[in-house]
Structures are given as C-alpha cells and as structure tokens.
Amino acid sequence: MITPKDIESAIRNVPDFPKPGIQFKDITQVLADACLFSGAIDLLIDGFKPGSVDAVVGIDARGFIFAAAAAMRLNAGFVPVRKKGKLPYQTHEQDYALEYGSATVAMHVDALKPGARVLLIDDLLATGGTASAATALVKKLGAKILETSFLIELKFLNGREKLKDCPVRSIVVY
Ligand code: AMP
Fold first, then answer.
1. Is 70 helix (H, G, I), strand (E, B) or coil?
2. Are 119 and 57 in contact (CB under 8 A)?
3. Measured from the CB, is residue 128 less than 6 Å from ligand 1?
4. In the chain, what is the greatest distance between 2 CA atoms, to the nearest angstrom?
5. Rounded to whole angstroms, how far apart are CA atoms 15 and 78?
6. Partners of residue 71 on adjacent β-strands
7. Shortest-distance atom of ligand 1 to CA 157
8. For the segment 89-107, what is each residue's pLDDT rounded down to a tens digit?
9. Is the CB of 169 under 6 A from ligand 1?
C-alpha cells in the first residue's frame, strides 16, 4: 500500500523554477513509478466507488494526468478545464487573479450535465485561484462538486480559503 510519505519522498523540489523565488514541486518521478502513480490515484479517490461519480474534472495541464486516470478507475467521464483559447467549441470562461495580473480558464458549455456528480482534481493547490475558477465553471453548468482533490497542498498559501464551499482533500502537505 502506497502512503502519502512514499509519494512525498518522490516529489522533487526545484528551487527558482520557472522564476526566482518559486519552489517548484516536480511530480514527474511519481508518475514514472508504476506503484506510486497507481497509489497516488488510490489516495486521490479513496472513499469513492465506481458509479458514485459521473465526471472527473481535471485542470490544465498536470491535473489532466491524475484526473484521467481517476476517471478510468471510477468508471466516470473525464472533462478538461483548459487555459483560455485551447478548447475548440463554445466555452464558459472564468478569470482569476495571479500575483501579477490575471488568467482565464475555460470549459465547454456542454461538458457537464446539470446535477452531474463531479470530482475535481489538480496536481497542486497553491493560492487556490485556479481551482476556485474551475469550481465556478462546474457550478455554472449546474453540476455538483463532491470533492476537490490535490496531490500536493502548499498550506501556507491558504488556498483552502477560496474553496470553502466544497470538501478539499490533499495527499502531501507542505
Ligand atoms: P494556484 O492557482 O495558485 O492554486 O496555483 C495552482 C496551479 O499552479 C496548479 O495547477 C499547479 O500546477 C501550479 N503551481 C503553483 N505553484 C506551484 C509549485 N510551487 N509547483 C508546481 N506547480 C505549481
């Protein structure tokens, strides 16, 4: 059985990437190890049974990796939340604040049915801006978020504060 400690041991901290001052959490060595990757998915969806979730929403881009694998395991669909301008069909968009400036995420207008039971997954919760924008898109379509799950949480950035209206799970906390 893979534990959060096992996952933590494989997460590499890369200082000053992509810019000075950022401690980048590199998850590629978790993905490259079959047991750790599979165990990470187990931890992200623990407690949810196949049939209890209609769609797993993943956030561009590393969130896709975990969300797609979780969707397969839960026998659920996979829905991408992408950076603005990447989805081909009509979209709903949501802006969110960055340290300097803002960014926008998008979802297809017909990506989720009203009432759909949704799990939202990303690799990392930092300030919570990205995830809260994604939850706003899910809610706009009338779907219900059962939980938001992250492999990593940077607790000192208080991202949970922005996700107060849904349960938040994180596996490795810094
Ligand atoms: P935020 O909107 O501040 O919660 O940022 C979350 C998004 O930015 C996630 O999709 C992460 O992939 C990425 N991210 C933010 N900080 C880091 C970090 N220190 N290491 C790796 N990815 C990060």
1. helix
2. yes
3. yes
4. 44
5. 32
6. none
7. 3
8. 999 999 999 878 999 999 9
9. no
